[in-house]
Amino acid sequence: MIASSSPPPATSPRQQSWIAALSALYVAIRVSTANLSPITDCDEVFNYWEPLHFVLYGTGMQTWEYAPQYALRTYAYLLPMAGVAKSYQFLLDRLPVVVVECLPRLLFLTQGSMLSSSSSFVLPSENKPLLFAMLRSTLAFFSSYAELSLLHSVHDILSPHLAYWMAFLQLTAAGNFHACSAYLPSSTVMILWQCSAANQFRGRDGWAIFWGLWAVLAVGWPFCAVLFVSTGGWALWRAYCNGDGDSEECGGSMSNVAGRGAGQTSRRAVGKVLIRTVFHAIVIQGIVMAIDDYFYGRTVSPIWNIFSYNARAGGDELYGVEPLSYYVKNLALNFNVVTLLGLSSLPILSLRVLVRTSTTSDESTRK
After folding, report:
1. What integer is the mean pLDDT of 241-252?
2. C-alpha dihedral over 301, 304, 308, 309, to 10 degrees?
3. How distant, in Å, are the alpha carbons of 63, 91, 139, 143, 220 from that of 85?
4. Residue 101: its pLDDT value, please?
5. Would you state the pLDDT for residue 110?
């Protein structure tokens, strides 16, 4: 993920207006269609919506993952959504009835799942189907924000045409349609990864690592750490060759990098990135453990528990193991033509590097 060495071309006011209009349309499509997507994973219902109901109303079924003796799920993942829900409850009780009655139609909530907002027995804040639809649309809004952040970075740093094609493919992909409104750690990791990538494209490596730490430590799915190995590696490389962890570019030839990296400045910059990362990790993990200590009644780390449970023999095979073909079919179904383009990109890029290296070698020989 190397930024262009030349500054991005200036965007005219007319282009900015078009980009703003398309971005608003992108968000509107994501938010309005969020409730048309079915819930396809039972874990979403029983491991996240049910516990959220417990946090909000004091009742709800408990799965074994939330039992204190296992403690595989973190309540830190539920509290932000609970805060959003409380805010919506506060607003719903204060909005005019006419406005509240329009919300289900705007959010494509089906007639059979709606409760009458004008009923004397149900306050707007107690209309759980409406609140549920609003929360799913909120997830879609955050997802569209993260997607647009990444798209704008691609537009400004790499290529406007690449960003337009990327937006079209993301908006039409079945996988993104299902994931953007799903209340699952994997969907939240997708959002945080896009925020991280958007910042790293712009040279803000500190923020890129920060979003990665939240994804790994606060969401409750530590296996996503493999996604952010390249994030950390690139941040360290940029700090090493530029002597500044937040530089815009990592320019210069390998010989120049080696020469500069031998100095104190480069080592100090790398150390700064590592110390900052460790500090943020300790703070985030401390907050998560404090929340779980309150709900579980003892000091516990669900991140470690779920990792150790899946790492030990047999733990990850409790519900069966899918063959490799399952993942290929899943990619093809969710991302169709993008899957073929993605799988073919690595050999094509490798061939391009080989051709360029061969051409450069021939030119050097002639000289």
Report:
1. 55
2. 50
3. 22, 10, 12, 17, 20
4. 83
5. 60
pLDDT tens for 129-162 read 889 999 999 999 999 999 999 999 999 999 889 9
Residue 135 amino acid letter? L
How many C-beta atoms lie closer than 10 Å to residue 329's C-beta? Answer: 13
Tokens 């528990």 appear where?
Answer: 305
What is the C-alpha separation between 249 and 157, in angstroms, rounded? 11
The answer to whether the CB of 207 falls within 8 A of the CB of 199 is yes
Residue 225 burial by Cβ neighbours in a 10 Å radius (0-12, 13-18, 19+): middle
Place of tokens 């398309």: 22
Q: What values do phi and psi take at 195, rounded to 5?
A: -65, -40
User: Which ranges constitute the DSSP H helices of the chain?
Assistant: 13-32, 42-44, 50-57, 79-92, 97-106, 128-153, 160-172, 174-179, 185-201, 205-217, 229-242, 254-261, 264-296, 302-311, 324-366
CB proximity list for 325: less than 8 A, separation 6 or greater: none
Q: Are 37 and 178 in contact (CB under 8 A)?
A: yes
Alpha carbons 101 and 89: distance in angstroms, whole number: 15
